[in-house]
């Protein structure tokens, strides 16, 4: 059995290496993280207020880090995201699954007592469909399957071809551009976003706020109206198309496709070249899948998200526990 303790800044490099190594195996993959050392380092550095105060690690008898659970908390929504648990179990261990589950339980129990979990009422986990360890962990902790998602990707020459393709010069294409500072336009984007994605981790007012991490392109309707938008970010290794929403009145006319293409052009222009673009599509969202596959995206990974909506955090033992 491994020993669990709070993380320290000195653990960070080992943790990044551990996560990137386990991410290469679908049986351990957590979908909140990328697959390279650079991506994992960027993601942990992006956790607010910092990684270390929301992380716990498991160590073996020699003190070597063998497991980690990092938690990101959205204080406004009282919602947490579990980046893990990860447990590195020796391949030849006679009771590998039991060791994994026992360590994962201990990591979660300790993380749940961190001060930042105090007001959390809901949490999310997200893993590869073949991460059965995570599925079993979720079931034992009464965390329900939320939805099946599929990661679609466009890479290399296919991505470059999309970026340099001349614009269609359709009337709609001329009305797509970066979101302006106009308050009415921003309010319209926020409203459309909240109607399309009522439970999104980023609510509309945050998506359009100054300082938002997202780049947003908008299909305008007149001076201040909005018929559609697409929002994405550039990460260490890829462009990520996070959300696309089109007014129901003008769907199936090609607007979604044009918004995605324009978003990728803006990300490439302002944040530099990447070799891959990705998007997560909920299983059964046929319009979205058609939109992305028509642009050349292909299926890369099948994922499952889990959510607990009635969470009661354990007591904070930070005063008495290391
Ligand atoms: C997904 C969405 C953005 C697509 O916008 P759009 O402007 O209709 O996109 P496009 O017209 O470029 O492409 C949609 C394609 O799906 C097709 N389609 C629409 N409904 C469909 C369905 N139920 N089953 C299969 N295909 C469907 C359209 O015919 C079109 O394909 P075609 O041009 O080959 O005929 C829009 O439906 C939407 O806002 N949905 C709600 C939010 C959402 O789910 N966003 C995606 C997650 S990021």
Spans of at least 5 consecutive residues with low confidence = none
User: What CATH architecture of the largest domain do you see?
Assistant: 3-Layer(aba) Sandwich
Alpha-carbon distance between the two ends: 18 Å
Compounds present?
Answer: coenzyme A
Order of helices and strands: EHHEEEHEHEHHEHHEEEHEHE
CATH fold annotation of the largest domain: Aminopeptidase
Number of domains: 2
- In the sheet with the most strands, the strands line up as 1-2-3-4-5-12-6-11-10-9-8-7
Largest beta sheet, briefly?
12 strands, mixed
Number of strands: 12
What is the CATH level 1 assignment of the largest domain?
Alpha Beta
Query: What fraction, in percent, of the residue positions are helical?
Result: 25-40%
Subunit organisation of the chains:
single chain
């Amino acid at each position: 059995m491994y020993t669990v303790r709070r993380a320290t800044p000195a653990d960070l490099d080992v943790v990044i290496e551990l996560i990137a190594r386990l991410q290469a195996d679908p049986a351990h993959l957590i979908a909140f993280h990328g697959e390279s050392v650079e991506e994992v380092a960027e993601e942990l550095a992006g956790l607010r207020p910092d990684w270390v105060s929301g992380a716990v690690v498991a160590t073996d008898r020699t003190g070597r880090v063998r497991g980690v659970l990092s938690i990101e908390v959205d204080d406004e929504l009282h919602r947490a995201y579990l980046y893990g648990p990860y447990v590195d179990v020796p391949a030849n261990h006679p009771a590998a699954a039991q060791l994994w589950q026992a360590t994962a339980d201990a990591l979660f129990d300790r993380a749940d007592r961190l001060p930042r979990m105090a007001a959390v009422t809901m949490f999310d986990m997200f893993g590869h469909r073949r991460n059965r360890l995570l599925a079993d962990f979720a079931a034992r902790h009464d965390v329900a399957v939320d939805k099946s998602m599929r990661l679609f990707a466009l890479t290399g020459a296919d991505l470059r071809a999309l970026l340099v393709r001349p614009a269609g010069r359709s009337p709609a294409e001329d009305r797509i551009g970066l979101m302006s500072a106009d308050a009415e336009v921003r309010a319209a984007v926020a409203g459309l976003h909240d109607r399309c994605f009522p439970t999104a981790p980023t609510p509309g007012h945050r998506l359009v706020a100054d300082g938002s991490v997202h780049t947003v392109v908008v299909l305008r309707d007149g001076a201040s109206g909005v018929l559609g938008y697409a929002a994405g970010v550039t990460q260490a290794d890829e462009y990520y198309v996070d959300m696309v929403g089109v007014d129901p009145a003008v769907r199936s006319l090609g607007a979604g496709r044009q918004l995605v293409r324009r978003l990728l052009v803006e990300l490439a222009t302002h944040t530099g070249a990447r070799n891959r673009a990705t998007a997560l599509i909920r299983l059964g969202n046929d319009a979205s899948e058609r939109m992305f596959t028509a642009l050349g995206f292909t299926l890369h990974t099948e994922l499952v998200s889990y959510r607990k909506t009635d969470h009661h955090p354990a007591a904070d033992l930070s005063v008495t526990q290391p």
